[in-house]
Amino acid sequence: IKICSLAGVLSFVASPKGYEPPFPSDANEICITNDPSDAIKNADIVYTDVWASMGQENSKKERAEAFQNFCITPELFALAKKDAIFMHCLPAHRGEEVSADVVDGPQSVIFDQAENRLHAQKALLIKLLGS
After folding, report:
1. pTM flag (> 0.85)
2. Which pairs with CB-CB distance under 8 Å and at least 24 residues apart come from 76-81?
3. In whole angstroms, what is the distance from residue 126 CA to residue 103 CA?
């Protein structure tokens, strides 16, 4: 999100109250909302992540309750542009942060995204290992 802001890409972030990401006030290209419909409306790219990451296992149930209205469903995804793509850094939890219809749908690019990340990580390893 920060890199998009630096590059001039307008980003909308939707999260429940109390879970908003901290950003400096000069991050002009970031709009934070508590309404996922506002965030996804006319989006080119819809990106989500798991609701509880590593280290947050103790709050998984609490976070699932707080985020339950933030699942990317076909109805919510339909608010994005017709040619919008869906992205997720994986692993995705179908039925939690995204429905199976969206994550496995024709506009999902999650596996291309994972493949691109694999090549970037291999290049980084080569650089770090000095080969």
Report:
1. yes
2. 76/36, 76/37, 76/40, 77/40, 77/46, 77/102, 77/107, 79/37, 79/40, 79/41, 79/42, 79/43, 80/40, 80/41, 80/42, 80/43, 80/44, 80/46, 81/42, 81/43, 81/44
3. 32
pLDDT digits (tens, 9 = 90+) for 48-79: 999 999 899 899 999 999 999 999 999 999 99
Residue carrying structure tokens 């990451």? 53
Cα 54 to its chain centre, rounded Å, is: 16
Torsion over CA of 25, 67, 82 and 118, rounded to 10 degrees?
80
- CA–CA gap between residue 124 and residue 129 (Å, rounded): 9
Phi, psi of 45 (to 5 degrees): -135, 135
- Give the separation between CA 50 and CA 64, rounded to whole angstroms: 10
